[in-house]
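The following record pairs a protein chain with its ligand, flavin-adenine dinucleotide.
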Amino acid sequence: MPYTRITEHKHFAPWESHERTVVYREFSRLCGETDTPYYPIRLVKEKQQLLNYVQKARGAKGVTFIGRLGTYRYLDMDVTIHEALLASKSMLECIVSKKQLPCFSVDPMV
Ligand SMILES: Cc1cc2nc3c(=O)[nH]c(=O)nc-3n(C[C@H](O)[C@H](O)[C@H](O)COP(=O)(O)OP(=O)(O)OC[C@H]3O[C@@H](n4cnc5c(N)ncnc54)[C@H](O)[C@@H]3O)c2cc1C
């Protein structure tokens, strides 16, 4: 199939009924100069940038980098929420035990 995915919104609310419908298809392409980059990609150049970023981030104190932006990984919502809950639990434990916050709750290089 040429598209990444196909969505028909009426299926999100099966209890509703509609006479008409909207179906849309998403097509992937490389991000251009004027686009908003949506998806983290890890090619050679990006991996080097990530390594530089991770090394710099590891020097920061009192901050934990999480999520898609903070770890430069493609994440779905369920994984993002799961990791956010684990990170907040770990942060609360650090605060209670007066330990330093971890720089990353998930190793971004894995
Ligand atoms: C086009 C697209 C379609 C997707 N479809 C799905 C899907 O169908 N199902 C699914 O499960 N997941 C989907 N995802 C993935 C999902 O959106 C992400 O996994 C999720 O939003 C990641 O959450 P996050 O909190 O890590 O990052 P984000 O939601 O990106 O949140 C980061 C936040 O940080 C803010 N920010 C950025 N820079 C700064 C700064 N310097 N200072 C302060 N704030 C800043 C941003 O404005 C943003 O609000 C899709 C993502 C995209 C882009």
